[in-house]
Amino acid sequence: MKTQNQFPDLWWLLLLQGISAIVLGFLLLTQPVSTTEVIVVFVGAYWLVSGIFAIVRIFTAAGRAHWGWSLLIGVIGVLAGLFVLRHPLISMVILPTTLVIVLAIQGILMGVFDLVRGFQGDGAGAYVMGVLNILIGLWLWFNPLAAALSLPFVLGIFGLVGGVFLTYQAFQLRKQAA
Fold first, then answer.
1. What's the longest Cα–Cα distance across the chain?
2. Is residue 107 a contact partner of residue 133, using CB atoms and an 8 Å limit?
3. Residue 5 domain-assigned?
4. Rounded distance, CA 103 to CA 137, Å?
5. Do 78 and 55 form a contact (C-beta atoms < 8 A)?
6. Which residues contact 170 (CB under 8 A, 6 or more apart)?
7. d(CA 92, CA 167)
8. What is the chain's mean pLDDT, rounded?
9. Are 92 and 103 in contact (CB under 8 A)?
10. Which of the listed residues 45, 59, 142, 147 has the most CB atoms within 10 Å of its CB?
11. CB under 8 Å to 93, separation ≥6 — which residues?
12. 6 found inside a domain
């Protein structure tokens, strides 16, 4: 098992990640529309490239999945990537809204599972988390566009807080290495 002490000279990677998160968080808070547009274009390019690689994987020995799945994933990736790259403004609304709907479904399901855990004896905390998850999931489900519009701000705050934490951890790792 590797510990942090075996990688003392890699503290700067954590620092870079922290600084990147701070910059991205700051941009999401101060320039949410243009930053979201850039992120959406990167997602589209990623889907396009990964779709092409999934199709190429059909013809190589590296593919372990059935060729049909690789073809399906590849075609969906290429089509989604092309759509996002050709229609970035529409995609700026569709992608966050879709993400919010997926989070709503996940929240409702997690809430139901937490309630079941509460009934099985996991205590009052499971009930509270279950109710909160269901309420948040339902709010997201019935207000996906409002939630999608607030998503850059929420992600910006998470980026700033996470970036500060990562930067602190990088300097702690550097101090341990010295």
1. 54
2. yes
3. no
4. 7
5. yes
6. 11, 12, 14, 15, 17, 18
7. 30
8. 90
9. no
10. 147
11. 145, 148
12. no
Structural domain span for residue 111? 14-177
pLDDT digit string (tens) for 1-11? 445 456 667 88
* Domain total in the chain: 1
Q: Is the pLDDT of residue 90 over 80?
A: yes
Establish if 1 belongs to a structural domain.
Answer: no
User: Is residue 9 assigned to a domain?
Assistant: no
- What pTM value is reported for the model? 0.71
Which among 163, 164, 152 is positioned nearest to 28, based on CA atoms?
A: 152
Interatomic CA distance for residues 132 and 116, integer angstroms = 14
Which residues have C-beta within 8 Å of that of residue 25, sequence separation ≥ 6?
A: 155, 156, 157, 158, 159, 160, 161, 162, 163
Compute CA distances 19 → 23, 78, 168, whole Å: 6, 32, 10
Which residues, other chains included, contact 39 with Cβ-Cβ below 8 Å and sequence gap of 6+?
none
* Residue pair 135/84 in contact by the 8 Å Cβ criterion: no
Cα separation, 123 vs 138, whole angstroms: 23
pLDDT at site 9: 78
Q: Which residues, at least 6 apart from 40, have a Cβ–Cβ distance to it below 8 Å?
A: 84, 88, 91, 92, 95
- Specify the 3-state DSSP secondary structure of 136: helix
pLDDT digit string (tens) for 100-117? 999 999 999 999 999 999
Is 16 in contact with 174 (CB distance < 8 Å)?
no
